[in-house]
Amino acid sequence: MTLPQSSNAGKWRNSKVFITGGTGLLGSHLTRMLVESGAEVVALVRDGVPKSLFYDSAPEWSLHKKVVTVRGDIEDFGLIERILNEYEIDSVFHLAAQTIVGAANRNPLATFKANIGGTWNLLEACRIHSKKIRRVIIASSDKAYGNLNGEAYDESFPLMGDHPYDVSKSCTDLISRSYALSYGLPVAVTRCGNFFGPGDLNFSRIFPGTIRDVIEGRRPVIRSNGKFIRDYIFVEDGAHAYLTLAELMTEDASTKKIRHAGEAFNFSYGLRLTVTDVVGKILEVMNRKDIEPQILNEASNEIPVQCLNSDKAKRVLNWKPRYGFDEGVRKTVEWYSKTFAL
User: Fold this and answer.
1) Which fold has domain 16-339?
2) pLDDT over 80 at 302, yes or no
3) 179 in active site
4) Whose CB has fewer CB within 10 Å in the chain, the N or C terminal residue?
5) Domain ranges within the chain, ordered by starting residue
6) Residues 165, 179, 232, 323: which is the catalytic one?
């Protein structure tokens, strides 16, 4: 799938950006947009994943040749502090985390160390070098709100995670706010719906798992009862949301403070789609509505209903999706069909 060049071209010229989780789904797309926009990017990479878009040799990608790659772990405070200092970083995007709910349930300690400890490591290093840091964007999640009985969460709702991944994101969110309010660090938080799109290699997730199953001639598998409701966002729309927020974190001439520091923003489509709905849409786009998915009903420690209200981002940041759900599904199926064709 050929992607259009970012409309942000030149906006980040000469900016020195540190991105954690640069080889992940969102990280790859955000890194590409930053590079196209003229940023000098330093990416923290824990594992080299050969099939990640970060290492894709296509001209619009080849990110590993266009950025400085530092191998290491977000839990290594000395490494994070060294990167900020030696590369004179002015902008930070913190995406690195354990993002798979099943893996978080199996190993909560590792999840807390990476997601919570990694966040305070990053923020403390930014505090030490705060004279150079202009903006810090921290990835939280809609899961940070916890189970609020199906209401469409807006940013005023409490953070009430129950299970390991959810709790880790509630803590990430609160720690970020603490550094903004206590130390004046220019930190803002994003809370997004479930990302999907080209480059997601976590095949336990519904989009890559379903598409691969169909390509390889199997019935797609639904781990839950198929009735869990989620809100989704195409990864290109998500990456654009991150850049929109970051670019508006400028100094207010009257207060001398950074706009939106200490704030959180929801980004999603406001959809209420069951897992069965999503699988049905994928099968429709793949012209395979004749296939019946297998429903295992094995999922546990997951929130039954999640939906985001993104009115604040639309009103305050003037953010709006470029693609939307249907176009995102088409582009996602196109990429997997081309990449994993038999």
Assistant:
1) Rossmann fold (3.40.50)
2) no
3) no
4) C
5) 16-339
6) 165
